[in-house]
Write a sequence for this structure.
């Protein structure tokens, strides 16, 4: 890890370790898996804090954006490898997700978001239960939609065809990756951003697993968990394939990943 990455991690750890006890083992056994390598964690967290800071300053930005990005931040902290000191940081992110999900609470939520984005510890707190904070999983799933339909879009390095560029969404990108193997030249150009997108997708799957099925379909919990785990693990394989610049591995992982989306939607959407 380079020195800058290390110092960002240290700043985050120091800022958020202050004042909050480190929790361990509060989760149902086996729900969370530590798969995020530290460099990806540092970069994804940096981008997340950037998004949160910008959304907090924009009075027109919907609070859902803050809520969802705070959930992502909390889930990054629970998915990172080899870093014990992220629990308090995750707690601040959960506090923001809860605040942004409350009615008539925009000013307080934006203030919390600014504190979090400035790497200050978050006061207040309330519940630190990520499970409860997740709420409607559709808000999180919407990240995958095409940008024109309210999704977050994808990095320009991933616009490898006019169609993918025009759609500008991770669901559409995953569909394209699953339908035809990438050329070696495209693998080379896309590797870095594809790895990050795949890890973000795996973290969305981890939130989906933690959330569980809608109340009316509690009886189908096992199917929900199975789809979420396949989604998470095939997204991790996609990230590995991208890092190794392995076109066939990217193709196989994309097919498995896309299948998990389609199968779960067939049963729960
Ligand atoms: C474990 C189940 C599950 C998995 C796996 C899953 N989804 Fe979803 N998805 C849902 C549910 C539930 C909704 C919300 C449906 C609603 O409330 O309308 C949803 C909604 C969405 C939406 C919102 C817009 C819409 O069409 O309703 C998008 C986009 C989406 N999912 C993309 C994906 C992608 C891409 C993947 C795979 C990479 C994926 N999902 C995997 C359960 C899942």
């Amino acid at each position: 890890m380079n020195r800058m990455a290390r110092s960002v991690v240290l700043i985050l750890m120091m800022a958020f370790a202050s004042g909050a006890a480190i929790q361990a083992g509060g989760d149902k056994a086996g729900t969370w898996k530590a798969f995020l390598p530290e460099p990806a964690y540092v970069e994804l967290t940096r981008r997340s804090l950037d998004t949160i800071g910008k959304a907090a300053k924009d009075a027109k930005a919907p609070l859902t954006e803050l809520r969802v990005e705070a959930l992502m931040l909390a889930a990054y902290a629970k998915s990172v490898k080899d870093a014990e000191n992220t629990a308090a940081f995750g707690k601040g992110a959960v506090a923001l997700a809860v605040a942004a999900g409350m009615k008539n609470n925009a000013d307080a939520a934006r203030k919390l978001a600014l504190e979090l984005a400035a790497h200050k510890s978050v006061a207040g707190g309330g519940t630190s239960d990520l499970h409860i904070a997740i709420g409607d999983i559709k808000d999180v799933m919407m990240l995958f939609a095409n940008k024109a339909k309210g999704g977050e879009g994808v990095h320009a390095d991933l616009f490898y065809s006019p169609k993918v560029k025009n759609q500008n969404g991770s669901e559409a990108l995953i569909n394209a990756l699953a339908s035809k193997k990438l050329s070696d030249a495209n693998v080379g150009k896309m590797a870095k951003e594809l790895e990050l997108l795949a890890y973000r997708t795996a973290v969305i799957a981890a939130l989906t697993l933690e959330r569980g099925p809608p109340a009316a379909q509690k009886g189908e919990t096992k199917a929900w968990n199975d789809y979420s785990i396949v989604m998470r693990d095939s997204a991790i394989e996609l990230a590995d394939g991208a890092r190794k610049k392995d076109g066939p591995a990217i193709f196989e992982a994309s097919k498995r990943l896309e299948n998990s989306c389609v199968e779960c939607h067939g049963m729960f959407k």
The pocket of heme C is lined by residues 137-138, 141-142, 144-145, 171, 174, 201, 208, 224, 227-228, 231, 257, 260-261, 264-265, 268-269 (CB under 6 Å).
